Amino acid sequence: MTMEYNTRCAIAACQQLGLTWESIDPEGNFIRVRFGSRWQYFELGRSPFNAEAVACICKDKTRSYQLLQTRVRLPEMRSFLDPCGDKRYRKYLTHDSLPAILAEAESAFSYPYVIKPNKGSLGINVFLCQDRSEAEHALSVIYNKNTLNYDYISIAQKFIASAFEYRLICGFNRPLMVYRRGDGAEFNARYWEHGAGGRAQLETSGELISELYEFIRPVFAELELGLVGFDIIRAKDGDLYLIELNSAPRFDHVIADNGMDCVVDLYCNLFRDAQILEGWPDADSIGQ
Question: Domain 52-70+161-249 classified CATH 1.10.10.410?
Fold first, then answer.
């Protein structure tokens, strides 16, 4: 059996809380958990706690920016449709060539700036571009239809040199976990590849957790989020910026550096809150 960490920790939480669960696939990565009289389904990092539209908004960096830019501080960005993309979407084109895209990006941002896919994950195809040749290369990689990571929308984003980067995991509008991602490199994409400095370090300072939570708290006025990871950087000047949201956070690097117990505890707290807030039967008896 090849079970991923997310479902392994969810099952361990079920066992601690006395919740009934069943594996649907032979690997144990597609499970269902009984909350009161209802089954709820979990598949890898995906949970039943976010509506489909909300999960799509989180994955789509352009939509997230459009929705949240007046609510919380985000790095300024521009989005660009692939000039050679599907003909059905040509009516949405605002820039008909890579030079036109680069000219617009350069008018908005000075080098270096970031170019990345609109719906990418795990830091794949995220580039810090120092000049036009690097920016052109970044666009050509993102718009390459012959790769698995093709995206028909690219993003140019103002580069904010970070002092630290954090992920804040929230469940039903309350903080469940904070960890620092890497050693504070100015550009921290794929931090786990930074050798000895690429650890996921749990943060337990109540002051820090409260600061990060209060920073992103306005997001909950716009989105009903059952489980979400907020990627947040602290800039060199101390300001916080929200980089992106993840409605299906994974915990591989946290577990590799800190063990499973912290993530099992997270799922226990999440399941207790889900039972209570969703009004499922037996809410008072869970885990007793």
Answer: no
Q: What is the DSSP annotation of 106-163?
A: HHH-PSSEEEEESS--TTTT-EEESSHHHHHHHHHHHT-TTSTT--SEEEEEE---EE
The answer to whether the Cα torsion of 161, 166, 167, 171 is positive or negative is negative
Query: Is 0.85 topped by the overall pTM?
Result: yes
What is the identity of the amino acid at 198?
A: G
Tokens 């039972």, located at residue: 275
CB contact at 8 A, 188 and 233: yes
Residue 71 burial by Cβ neighbours in a 10 Å radius (0-12, 13-18, 19+): middle
> CA 142 to CA 187: how far, in whole Å?
19
Note the pLDDT tens digit of each residue in 215-274. 999 999 999 999 999 999 999 999 999 999 999 999 998 998 999 999 999 999 999 998
Residues 6+ apart with CB under 8 A from 26: 1
Token pair of 220, please?
């909950």
Which of 3.30.1490.20, 3.40.50.720, 3.30.360.10, 3.10.310.40 would CATH assign to domain 77-158?
3.30.1490.20
Phi/psi of residue 286, nearest 5 degrees = -60, 130
- Nearest partner of 260 among 210, 202, 175, 211, judged by Cα: 202
Q: How far apart are CA 157 and CA 110, in angstroms?
A: 10
Query: Residue 131: left if φ>0, alpha if ψ -120 to 50, beta else—which one?
Result: beta
- Total Cβ atoms within 10 A of residue 16: 14
Query: Distance between CA 288 and CA 268 in Å, rounded?
Result: 12
CA angle 221, 238, 213 (to 5 degrees): 30
